[in-house]
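Quick one: structure tokens for this chain, please?
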Amino acid sequence: MNDRRPQTERVFVENEFGTITDKRVIYYRAKGWFSDGSREDIPLQQVTSARVGISRSVFVGTLFVLVSLALLGAEGDAVVLGVLFFAVAFLLMWGSPTVVVKTSGRNLKAAKGLPWQRQSADDFVEALRQQLFDKAA
């Protein structure tokens, strides 16, 4: 009879970008605004680095602002469409946090969050870095 019990993992961070435990990283690669991405379980020993950045679409956002201004000058239902275009332009220019986890074999695709999820992205990367440096010591 086998008396071995599964060892429990300590969870340090669990949010929109994934989960950091003392043994592995659960990462949602290719996550975007409208997709959940695909889940990858990565042993902590295979992770070499992680970074967080902000991706902005200034050019597309500017185009959306110009379209929204034209629609806001129109009459009728076009004003509502103009407000919607302006809101999307604001989000595009505000920027989205992106998290990239690099493993010993490859870079994983970036997980992109919504603009108001910057703190979650920072928390995820910081917890992963702490685990990497604690294991190295």
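Residues 1-5 have pLDDT under 50 and may be disordered.
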